[in-house]
Design a protein that fits this description.
alpha+beta, Beta-Lactamase, 6-stranded antiparallel sheet, 30% strand
Length: 456
């Protein structure tokens, strides 16, 4: 018959021989004893009643366990059976485990607990990781699609449904070319050739076709899919809608073009003002004074535009008048002589709000700049007439140039400034802009609905 010491030795051997990690704790949760599997699983030895270097435990959703099943079992005086969790293995990989925690009693008093941790093994761990990967794919904001080497769709996540309009049931089993515009079919041939060679397709931008026939710009990345033996069996595609990025990029290009155009205009205006001043100046001192005055007027016109733009941004409703705006913009080009002024502003004056002022200032600036470069303000005999009036439903401004270089033929293309002026009148003011190229100079008519012109 075995002695008590021998029986304890046998129990210790059985304890170490069990295929699951087992350890006991005192009532405070500190390790009392453990078996070899537990030491291997946690990769550490207990020291002074504490488990040093133990691995982090996680819930199945990958959130760290702030309170473990063992501590819950001791605190709540009840066993925990088969709690699922994850643990950092000795090599850093996540191991899927089941946790069985049981409090130990002496009478009514909890004196400790027994914890059993069962690792689910490679097969179950692989299945678990596959489930997690599937969950990640399904919840991704990017369209993730897989296909075989013939181009047939195999999988289709929810983001793909949102992006392309096909449900998974409608897409799976169909050829991927249903998403590719006819003029881009060669892309699919190149992608499949690259995948068969085992080479991923780096991110590139392209167009794809939705179920309703509309085209959507996407960023596309393609990677080979391999089976367990390493054989390439298909491809995984990740597509991201870049419509917003394209719009932002186009807006940035427009802004840069406008900045470039305005800088060129400023230089042209400065040169024109110097030439304008030189024609009428009697001495270098008089010319310098005239240049300073005209540049000052030009600066004040820009200041008026800036203030109204700031007022629009702040939600202000302050107004000025149409004639005040015209005088401010043309002031740098005004010449007074025996024959009177080279600029005449007549007609009905109307109040315009800050938004209309900012828009029209840009348009009138284009008119004056073009006149200084090519039209009435580029010659000593040039004259500009601005006539404003009201119709039943609109306010009309007619800009007429006379005495400038003769117009030999109608321009065959619009410059950026002319396009900008048309877009501003039509897009922001819901109006119309028409240019009549007459032999003596341009006649420009701007019509703006009264409900867009300003305060009543």
């Amino acid at each position: 018959m075995l002695s008590a010491a021998d029986r304890l030795g046998v129990l210790a051997d059985v304890f170490d021989a069990l295929p699951m990690a087992i350890y006991t704790t005192d009532a405070a949760g500190k390790i009392v004893c453990f078996n070899a599997v537990a030491a291997a699983l946690f990769g550490a030895e207990p020291a002074e009643g504490a488990w040093t270097g133990s691995r982090q435990l996680y819930w199945p959703n990958s959130l760290p366990m702030r309170e473990t099943p063992m501590s819950i079992a001791i605190k709540e005086r009840r066993p925990i059976r088969g709690a699922e969790g994850l643990i950092d293995g000795p090599d850093g990989t996540l191991l899927r485990v089941l946790i069985y925690s049981t409090p130990m009693f002496q009478g009514d008093m909890v004196i400790g607990g027994v914890n059993v941790i069962v690792e689910l093994g490679e097969q179950n761990r692989t299945a678990y990781l596959e489930q997690r990967l599937a969950a990640i794919v399904e919840s991704s904001e990017d369209a993730i699609i897989s296909k075989d080497l013939s181009g047939t769709i195999i999988t289709w996540n929810r983001a793909a449904e949102r992006l392309f309009g096909y449900t998974a049931a409608e897409a799976i089993g169909r050829p991927i070319i249903m998403l590719i515009p006819d003029d881009r079919r060669q892309e699919e041939d190149a992608i499949l050739a690259s995948i068969r060679a085992g080479t991923p397709v780096a991110r590139y931008e392209t167009l794809r076709k939705r179920k309703d026939g509309t085209l959507v710009p996407i960023a596309l990345t393609v990677s080979p899919l391999r089976d367990r033996s390493g054989r390439i069996i298909g491809a995984s595609k990740i597509a991201r809608d870049i419509s917003d990025q394209i719009r932002i990029r186009e807006h940035q290009t427009l802004v840069l073009n406008e900045m470039s155009h305005r800088v060129k205009n400023v230089l042209a205006v400065a040169g024109g003002l110097i030439g304008l001043s030189a024609r009428s100046a009697q001495s270098p001192k008089a010319m310098a004074r005239a240049v300073q005055e005209r540049l000052g007027a030009y600066s004040r016109a820009h200041d008026l535009t800036r203030k109204t733009a700031d007022n629009v941004a702040a939600g202000g409703i302050e107004s000025t008048t149409l004639h005040t705006l015209v005088h401010a913009i043309v002031a740098p080009y005004v010449l007074e002589g025996d024959g009177g002024s080279n600029v005449e502003v007549t007609g009905t004056d109307v109040s315009i709000d800050a938004n209309t002022t900012a828009c029209l200032a840009l348009v009138l600036h284009e008119f004056t700049t073009n006149a200084a470069k090519y039209g009435a303000f580029s010659t000593p005999s040039g004259r500009v007439s601005v006539v404003t009036g009201e119709a039943e439903d609109a306010v009309e401004l007619v800009w007429t140039e006379r005495g400038g270089p003769p117009v030999r033929e109608r321009p065959t293309r619009q410059g950026f400034g002319s396009v900008l002026a048309v877009r501003t009148v039509e897009g922001q003011l819901n109006g119309a802009l028409h240019i009549d190229w007459q032999g003596e100079g341009a006649v420009i008519t701007v019509r703006i609905p009264k409900d867009r012109i300003g305060p009543e």
